[in-house]
TrEMBL record:
Chain ranges passing through the membrane: none
CDD domains per UniProt: Ig (cd00096)
Protein name: Ig-like domain-containing protein
Record key words, sorted: Signal
Signal peptide: 1-22
The species this protein was found in: Esox lucius (Northern pike)
Alphabetized InterPro entries for the sequence: Ig-like_dom, Ig-like_dom_sf, Ig-like_fold, Ig_sub, Ig_sub2
Length: 209
């Protein structure tokens, strides 16, 4: 049987891996199995639907809660109030935007679509992990002539980002995940924080050196 396909893209800050699931002419394609995103940022998810020809998609939504046979539409979930946007049309399919990400948004996101007389849920979905930034210092004590390693830590791996470091809110030239001070001098004293390029407003808490 010929198949009709609606295509859409998954826009995130990392490389993508295509996962296609479905049977008997039905399916949902997710372009990544997992996403790591920064707290306070925005993420977009989308998919490709596959269904038997002759049918037409009447509606679609994303969810994280509820059983697969009775899920809660994110647009009706109070935990996502005013932070989610659906984009849907016959040309480009269905996309979800989540703004102002919170750590509590870490979950598996699934898409469900409807045709006349049928409904289909794409499994297993996309695993979203939301992290913040924390500066970790390896040296227990700091003395002149010693060495210190500062690392911008996350609870999941942010892919495709450039890290930015600040001392006393002044931008440093280092653009790596770790900042090495060797040897340490009195001029290095101050409060250090890190961010990722393009999301400079989402600074880590400061670490005193």
């Amino acid at each position: 049987m010929a198949l009709a396909t609606k295509e859409c893209l998954l826009v995130v800050f990392l490389w993508s891996l295509t996962v296609v699931l479905g049977q008997n002419g039905w399916g949902v394609t997710y372009y990544t199995q997992s996403i790591c995103a920064l707290k306070g940022s925005t993420v977009e998810l989308s998919c490709t639907y596959k269904y038997p020809s002759g049918l037409q998609i009447t509606s679609a939504f994303w969810f994280t809660k509820g059983p697969n046979d009775d899920p809660v539409n994110l647009m009706e979930d109070p935990d996502y109030k005013d932070r989610v946007i659906y984009h849907s049309d016959d040309e480009n399919g269905h996309k979800l935007t989540i703004k102002d990400l919170r750590k509590s948004d870490s979950a598996v996101y699934k898409s469900r679509f409807f045709t006349v007389g049928y409904k289909y849920t794409g499994l297993p979905g996309v695993n979203l992990s939301v992290t913040d930034l924390q500066v970790n210092m390896t040296a227990a004590t700091v003395t002149d002539g010693g060495s210190v390693n500062l690392t911008c830590n996350t609870t999941c791996t942010l892919i495709g980002h450039t890290y930015i470091w600040y001392r006393n809110k002044q931008l440093l030239t280092n653009q790596e995940v770790s900042l090495h001070l060797n040897p340490v001098s009195s001029e290095d004293a101050g409060n250090y924080s890190c961010a990722v390029k393009g999301l400079e407003s989402l600074l880590s808490p400061e670490k005193k050196l």
